[in-house]
Fold this sequence. Notes:
It contains 12 helices and 16 strands. The protein is α/β, with parallel strands linked by helices.
Amino acid sequence: MSRKSDQEHAANLKALRQQIDKLDLDILEKLSKRATVAGQIGKVKTESGGEIFSASREEEVLANILNTNRGPLGEVTLRAIFRELISGCRALQRVQRIAFLGPEYSYSHLAAIERFGEAVEYVRVGSIQAVFEEVSRKHVDYGLVPLENSTDGRIADTLDCFVRMPAIRICSEIRLRVHHNLLSNAEQMEIRRVYSKAQALSQCRHWLGKNLPHATLHEVASTADAAKLVMGDGSAAAVASRQAGVRYGLRVLFPNIEDHPENETRFAVVANHDSAKTGNDKTAMMFQVAHSPGALADVLGVFKLNKINLTWIESFPTQEVKGHYVFFVDFDGHAEEPKIKKAIKSLEDICESVQILGSFPTHKTAEG
């Protein structure tokens, strides 16, 4: 390459970098203006008693951005940028406290970051019940709990807490694609023990059986606990997130070892209120019916008659009477919509009990 060509490349690079520097300053100026307007919105909310976090509004903002985007930046990048921008603007009004099933870099923590960003105070607790208790006592603004997994189904502890504390509401959902990784500083043939949360081990059981038949499986409280536990163990591995591996200095021996590539967990953001209508919502409800033939069919008939699409249904045994169940359902629509109100009224007439757990915006699956 000639000296002249080198000089031309250097000049072009300098000019492009100058454009970047100018654009960065323009972006900073607009970010500051946006934050100022967000602060004004916060004052209006404070005066009117509104909530700082609004899942419905944030989904609207993201949808507006993503629907307008023509590239070259992809959806994942834009979501991350605007998630942190929104998080920072919320923090200008007040830093919110979010309870989650810890420790850090558990999948619950990753889901919480996906929803709230980094500009909040995260409060890690040791159980799902503790999340509900922190929300109920108003020690935190919101809590995040796992609701169901596409491989293993319902999270029984969460459903039990809704039965025990029906005043707690769902105001948002997060759908997180869960990618499990085998983390260790040992070699594959040296591994004799694998640690993780029961659900994570279950979601990788075929892979583990095929690739580590000589290793025993051990359940611990969380995937992040597993990563911490094997940090200095030369014959153990953990099934956990990539981020947990970075945190505890573990190598990713094998990525994405989940048996089903579409493996995802749905989380609920719980609070003392639900969310405003967006036009793309779901409602969660639990109900009990008489222990008699056709009682459940009568309930399902109400949804069919009102042309309401059920998106999830689970039965859960009651503690009071053996053989009796509480049913949990999600369905399309917001509780304030006329046809949903009509259906709920009909359900109240034929069910022994009906409890709305909240209406919230539908959330698109995010990568973990």
